[in-house]
């Protein structure tokens, strides 16, 4: 209340309206994307008869926490979307801060569940003892840092309501310098774990006997977690500015936006590797088929076809005896000496022997496939 007994009104700038609209326009599609990828992951696993594992349970828990956090922030920000609002009351400001403070523990639980889910999934593929130990240590680090951050956010003010209500007498809150240190440490661990988990498949994927393009696809899907690291870095920079300045709506809304972007990108990146077969079928439908042949064998088969077309005797053979009329789509691993001996001796051998040789060559190429 002011001296006249009227409620205090705080002006809302155009930048505040823009930040509120940006929150909705950016986070709503990302929320939908993470929901679709998570649902597809679970449905495909159930339809395949596979058991829902620990990593699936953790990613589901992370999505529940992320949805609750997004809903709180959406309620806190929605009223500012209306461009006709020029002022906000003290109660509205306290509500925005309150929902923002309560959303932080939900974010901590969600990001921890997502990271641990990815680590558990990687443990199923990694068989090397040293790298498995690295993953287990990483899980322990995530648990410890998340627990410490969770406790700090609940105890940053005593009572907690003093975080958004400065009129509570006798309240004690952590200083700006303490908040900055905790924020830096938490952001550092989040960014580091995002990068490690995104690049960790390289420790075993390159050793698998799979087509090169298939390996590239899995690496690209897993490396999308690096995009979540970019969101973490942007959010950390905004938090540093917010700690050293007077609170503004636009900055608070921007921090909330990047917080949700980090969550939903991390959720999507954690689910995409499970959809590799679906992505492969979609790419095959578009003409990009690498499920059965690698890039090397593709070009090798092209060179083989070119060499076969350049042979002058192939036309004579096809016209005279009807040989080699069956197209060979696989890579023929017959060396030049065997080919020359077959061609040279074909004129002296009987027709039955030539047919027998053709059957052997066809069986050999079929075996390679």
Question: Could you explain how this protein is built, in words?
Answer:
- This protein is an all-alpha fold and 369 residues long.
- The chain is built from 14 helices and four strands.
- Strands 1-2 form a two-stranded antiparallel ribbon. Strands 3-4 form a two-stranded antiparallel ribbon.
- Helix 2 runs antiparallel to helix 3 (90-125) and helix 8 packs antiparallel against helix 9.
- The longest helix has 36 residues, at 90-125.
- The chain is globular and about 75 Å long.
- The chain starts with 8 loop residues before the first strand and ends with a helix.
- 26% of the residues are buried.
- Mean pLDDT is 76; it is low at 291-307 and 314-369.
Q: Which regions contain 5 or more consecutive residues with pLDDT less than 50?
A: 291-307, 314-369
Largest sheet composition: 2 strands, antiparallel
Number of strands: 4
Helix/sheet category:
mainly alpha
The shape is: globular
End-to-end Cα distance? 82 Å
Count helical runs.
Answer: 14
Attribute tags:
72% helix; mainly alpha; globular; 14 helices; 4 strands; 3% strand; disordered C terminus
């Amino acid at each position: 209340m002011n001296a006249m007994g009227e409620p205090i009104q705080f002006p809302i700038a155009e930048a505040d309206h823009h930040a509120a609209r940006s929150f909705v326009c950016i986070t709503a599609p990302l929320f939908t994307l993470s929901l679709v990828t998570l649902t597809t992951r679970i449905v495909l696993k159930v339809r395949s008869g596979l058991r829902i594992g620990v990593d699936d349970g953790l990613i589901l828990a992370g999505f529940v926490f992320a949805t609750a956090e997004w809903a709180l922030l959406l309620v806190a920000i929605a009223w500012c979307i209306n461009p006709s609002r020029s002022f906000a009351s003290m109660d509205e400001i306290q509500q925005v801060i309150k929902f923002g403070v309560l959303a932080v523990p939900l974010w901590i639980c969600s990001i921890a569940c997502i990271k641990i889910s990815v680590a558990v999934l990687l443990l199923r593929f990694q068989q090397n003892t040293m790298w498995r130990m690295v993953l287990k240590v990483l899980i322990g680090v995530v648990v410890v840092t998340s627990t410490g951050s969770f406790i700090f956010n609940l105890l940053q003010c005593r009572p907690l309501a003093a975080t958004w209500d400065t009129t509570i007498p006798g309240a004690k809150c952590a200083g700006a310098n303490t908040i900055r240190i905790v924020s830096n440490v938490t952001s550092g661990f989040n960014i580091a774990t995002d990068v490690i988990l995104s690049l960790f498949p390289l420790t075993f994927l390159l050793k698998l006997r799979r087509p090169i393009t298939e390996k590239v696809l899995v690496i690209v899907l897993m490396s999308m977690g690096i995009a979540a690291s970019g969101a973490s870095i942007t959010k950390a920079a905004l938090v540093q500015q917010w700690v050293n300045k007077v609170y503004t709506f636009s900055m608070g809304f921007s921090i909330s936006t990047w917080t949700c972007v980090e969550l939903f990108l991390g959720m999507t990146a954690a689910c995409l590797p499970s959809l590799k077969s679906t992505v492969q079928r979609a790419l095959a439908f578009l003409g990009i088929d690498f499920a059965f042949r690698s890039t090397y064998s593709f070009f090798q088969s092209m060179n083989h076809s070119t060499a076969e077309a350049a042979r002058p005797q192939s036309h004579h053979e096809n016209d005279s005896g009807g040989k080699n009329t069956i197209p060979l789509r696989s890579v023929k691993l017959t060396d030049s000496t065997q080919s020359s001996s077959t061609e040279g001796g074909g004129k002296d051998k009987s027709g039955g022997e030539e047919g027998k040789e053709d059957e052997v060559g066809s069986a050999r190429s079929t075996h390679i496939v």
